[in-house]
Protein: LLM class flavin-dependent oxidoreductase
Organism: Staphylococcus devriesei
Amino acid sequence: MSNIKLSALNLVPIREGQNDKDAIDDMVELAQQLDELEYERYWIAEHHNAPNLVSSATALLIQHTLEHTQKIKVGSGGIMLPNHAPLVVAEQFGTMETLFPNRVNLGLGRAPGTDMMTASALRRDQHNGVYEFPEEVEQLQTYFGPENKQAYVRAYPAVNKNVPLYILGSSTDSAHLAARKGLPYVFAGHFAPQQMKEAIQIYKELFEPSDVLDQPYMIVCLNTIVAETDKEAERLASTLAQVFTSITRGKMQPVQPPTDNLENLLTPREYEMAKQRERNSLIGSEETVKQKIENLIEEYGEIDELMGISYIYDKAQQVDSFKRLKNVIQRINN
């Protein structure tokens, strides 16, 4: 088994009782903690028209995080290309790479990261944007590449910066693209585990070596809550259940404290969905989560990197969870 690297994703959620600035401060504080824990990378998502998330101006948040951390790589999980002109993306990330060399990542998604009305308000044709995703990824590769391979329009200061690109996916579509282009692939198992096995298989089987990679590089993103006991982890996971339930109800409420009465807050169907999500997540004691990761590798094959996302209301418990996850990965790697 290869050494599994460990990283984290943050949607910059607002906790109950907080405001936007508090959420951004929490984002930076968590990044600093994970920097000290020597996590590989820290990615920030892109969402629009979501009152409980402060991750709409992703590039600004990435720069803010880079300014307040030392070593950890910081990037996008992801920049949703239908919303942005590739030239502008290249200019922004080329500028960050100039300021923070070898610490900037660019994860790319083909969905708008919002509803269709909001996508239209972002002033790009969301329908064409989805279909043009492969060509736009290629444009970005060119913008970040050598000067002698570029056309008249260039994304200064991105030229020759070689900002690493990652293809994000929640279905099998992007697996084909990542394999064909020889780029790293990141699967969103935290909200769409249904096609994960097939997507990983497609990516690995169809992978074509490139200037970037000579073999597949697979990152899996999962909900992670690691606590002292299974019971405590399940209690903390009641916050995760409330987050997803508020999304399905269309309420988008702030992150709620954990509860011992989850069954009373949800309908029977919502409660069953929450339990199913728990089964598809890394939730439990260190021993339980270790076993879950080993089972995942047995079922899906080797992964190169695990990206954890955790909706935990208490900030100290969230950091403790990431510390325990690090312990687990160290035990697996050893």
Notes: The chain has 13 helices and nine strands.
